[in-house]
Amino acid sequence: MQAGSQRQQLQQAVRRQPTDFIAWVMLADAELEAGDLAAGERAARQALQLRPGHPEALARLGRVAWMAGAHADAARLLGEASARAPQHPGIALWLGHALEDADDAEGAAAAYRRAHALQPDEPYIAAQRLAWQRRLCDWQDLDVLSRQVREAVARGHGAVEPFAFLSEDASATEQLACARLRAAHVGAAVRPMAPAVPRQQGPLQVGFLSNGFGAHPTGLLTVALFEQLRVDPSLQVHLFALNRDDGSPIRRRLATATELHDVAGMRHADIAARIRAAGIDMLFDLRGWGGGGTPEVLAMRPAPLQVNWLAFPGTSGAPWMDVVLADEFVLPATMEADFSERVLRLPRAFQPSDTTRALAPPPSRSACGLPSDGVVFCCFNNSYKLNPRSMARAFRILHAVPGSVLWLLSGPGEADARLRAAAHAQGLDPMRLVFMPKLPHAQYLARFALADLFLDTHPYNAHTTASDALWAGCPVLTCPGDTFAARVAGSLNHHLGLPGMNVADDDAFIRVASHLGNDSMALAAVRAELAAARASSGLFDMAGFAADFAIFVRGLATEHGWQGPHAA
User: Fold this and answer.
1) Which whole-number Å values give the CA distances from 520 to 329, 370, 401, 509, in the listed order?
2) What are the two backbone dihedrals, phi and then psi, of residue 239, each rounded to the nearest 5 degrees?
3) Which terminal Cβ of the chain has fewer Cβ within 10 Å, N or C?
């Protein structure tokens, strides 16, 4: 049964039996699945009125608060529900989500562990526990949990989130299986719109759907591109923002360069209708399975052509996505069979960036907690990428380069302390790990000037962070793998003309980093090579990127009957 018809049946059921507590709870779930927070809240409150203090009703109100971004209220409501139903794994799971967003990282981990202990064979709960332990750099039972999650995908369980699965040491074939299972689950719950008719003439209406249109990696990567596309008369660019205006300069620039539609908090069907009403010919999904997106909207097929690009580094596995846009390095021909979409490539790196950014003078080393002398290796990737393999090779590099330190982005909860404990267990002074708090983008970017070499992670490597490092003049050493997520930093190096910074395996990674750390002249030569490539290569040429991007859009539209902006 499709979700829409089930929702209508539940609405009819509560009209017939307004005292049916279970029906009200089920209706709250159905309304929330449809993205209608107001209707979900009304149903949950009606259930709570029928049975005051009931944990199922409290939990639904907690979900409403969580989906609305009221994280403290969500944590309070779900905490009360969980206390009243301590043996309920689903409520413990939702409490974990709420505590994550309420910045109680260790509390979230405890909730996920309890949910998993209550239902140890449920792969979705195992995957949530695994993903959060990775964020906390809590490596206890990591291999066991990862094996459970990968085996669940192999058995056809569609409960594993494809974004979290990118952090597992899985093949591109496994990633496709995971994405297809998730897409099948989403597709079964929506009713597609009537097919859209491709445009035959006039300027192409090109849409982009994301929750990152603001001070977010997606906004930072795309804003200069959209500013360049504004002058192309064949394209009219529309942004459909799932996130509310954050008041940032990036959001203002995006709104100036495009027609920005604020669809935050709208029901999925209403967002799809808004896209259809705008006459969008080609819709780019700039979120994918990354969380905070709306795959349900794309599953409704609001646009005749739908493209997976930039934000999710892998296949959507979804029949409603027609094309994935990549480049020849990040998605070579050998990987095409593991993508459900038709693969098309730009003649440059698939990733744009904001090349209008000025680099502010950095603070002193001492102000950042760094030693005045010695090599500073850095890795400002998110903490979930700092897995045992990546950290083990970083520790070996620190051993090989006396006086060096590793500068990391501070993680949630006790993540930093766990990493220092891991360093100590490998015979290193824990204080050789230095942590940088999260900072406004300009301040963070300036600090790359204090770092000598960026040490990438595997299998999920640096993406936006690698672009930031290279733009700021810090070389990135990476070991490209066999999945999209493991090849993005390598693509940037490749298109910069720095193939020597892409190495074959962990031994080569350790050898090259140790050599550069111990040979100041060799390191200076690499940094000079990067500075020259940054100025001369096409990686940071956004006018050129915009021209290639427009050619791609027009070419794909022409294949589907478009005759040009001025066709009679």
Assistant:
1) 30, 18, 11, 17
2) -110, 135
3) C
pTM: 0.92
pLDDT at 567: 57
* pLDDT at residue 254, as a whole number: 98
Interatomic CA distance for residues 189 and 163, integer angstroms: 20
pLDDT at position 139? 97
Peptide bond into 459 cis (omega under 30): yes
Helices (H), 87-209: 89-101, 105-118, 123-135, 142-154, 162-165, 172-187
Q: List all residues 6 or more positions away from 545 whose beta carbon is below 8 Å from its beta carbon.
A: 225, 228, 346, 348, 352, 538
Q: What is the pLDDT of residue 260?
A: 98
Helices marked H in 188-248: 217-229
The label of the residue with tokens 């291999």 reads 143
Instruction: Check residue 275 and give its pLDDT.
Output: 98
Q: Give me the sign of the Cα torsion angle 111, 114, 120, 122.
A: negative
The answer to whether 183 touches 318, Cβ cutoff 8 Å, is yes
- Give just the sign of the alpha carbon dihedral 267, 271, 276, 281: negative
- The whole-number pLDDT of residue 3 equals 56
Task: Kindly state the tokens that stand for 97.
Answer: 């989500």
Would you say 289 and 182 are in contact if contact means Cβ atoms under 8 Å apart?
Answer: yes
Distance CA 373, CA 324 (A): 46
127: tokens are 């995957």
| 160 contacts 152 by C-beta, under 8 angstroms | yes
377 phi/psi in degrees, rounded to 5: -85, 150
pLDDT of residue 160: 87
Regions of the chain with pLDDT less than 50 = 1, 568
Instruction: Convert 526-554 into a string of H (helix), E (strand) and C (coil).
Output: HHHHHHHHHHHCCCCCHHHHHHHHHHHHH
| Pair 138, 109: CB distance under 8 Å | yes
Which of 501, 440, 415 is closest to 466 using CA atoms? 501
Residue 234 CA from chain centroid, whole number? 30
Start-to-end CA distance of the chain, whole Å, equals: 46
CA 493 centroid distance within chain? 21
Task: Note the pLDDT of residue 15.
Answer: 92
List the structure tokens of 472. 């700021």
